[in-house]
Amino acid sequence: MAKKFNAAQFRSQLNQSINRYNQQVREYNRKVDQAINKYNQAVRQHNARVKANRQRLNSAIARLNSQASMRYSVTSSSSIRLYQSYQQLDNRYESGYLNDSYGDWIDLAEREAANSAELSNSLQAPAESSQFIGPVITSTISYELKGISEDLDNRWKGAIFSLNPHNPDAARHFCTSSREVIIQLIEMRAPDEEVRVNYPSVKFTENGKPSRRSKIEYLLHQNQREALADFTESNIEDIMILFRDFNNGTHGSAGRYSYDQLLKLKTRVEDSIKYLYNIAYN
C-alpha cells in the first residue's frame, strides 16, 4: 500500500531545509564580510604605517641636508648615500619591477635609512651635560642571536652593557663589539670556501678572499632576494663607516654621549642586525 503524501509535513521539512540553507548562507557571508573587514583594516594600518615611516625618513633627511656644518661629516654623508640607495630600491618596487613579496623588505630598508639619518642628526650637537640617565638600555634580539651562536649573544650583551652615559668610551666599546656581531653574522652564513665553490659570480679582495659584496650576494641568492644586494651592501657599509668614525676617536673630548644619542646608536645597530638576520637567516 502506497504511503500517503503529507503536504503539510513536506512543506515543514522544505521550510526547515530552506532556513538551514539561508542560515548557512548568512554565516558564510558574515565570515566573508569579517575577512574583508580584517583585510581592509590591515591594509589601512599598513598604509598608515608606511606613511608615518616615509614622513619620518623624509623629515630626517631634510633636517640632515639643512645642517650648516657637520661634526660627523663622514657618517652624515654615508647616511645620505644610504637614503639614495633606498630610493633606488623603492623606485624599482613602485614601478613594478619587483613583485609584491618585496614589500616587507622595502619597509625594513626604509627603517634602516631613517635610523641612519636620525642618528646622524642626533650626533651633530654635542651631548648636553645632564645627571639624567634614562631607563637601562636593553636588547630585543638576544633570543635570535642565542639561537645562532652563544658567542654572538655574549658579544651583543657586552655591547649593550657598555652603553652608559657615564662611560666616556661607551660608543667606541659598543661599536667594537657590535662590529664583530655583524661580521660574524655574514661569515657564518657565507663562509669563504662555500662562497668560493658555490657562487660563480664571486669576486675577490686583494687578499684572495671573497669580497663582502660577494658574500652578501651569495646569502641573498640562497633566499631568492637578489634585488636587495645593492641596498644591503650600502647598509652594511654605512654601519662600518659609523664604527670606523667612532673607533678613530677623531672627535676629541666629545667621547661622552647623551642618553638619547646612545639610544639612537643602539637602535641603528640593533635594527641593522635584525635586518641582516631577517634577510639571511629567516
UniProtKB/TrEMBL annotation:
It holds the Pfam family pP_pnuc_1. Keywords: Coiled coil. It comes from the Bacteria. Residues 146-276 form the Predicted pPIWI-associating nuclease domain. Residues 11-67 form a coiled coil. This is Predicted pPIWI-associating nuclease domain-containing protein. It comes from Algoriphagus boseongensis.
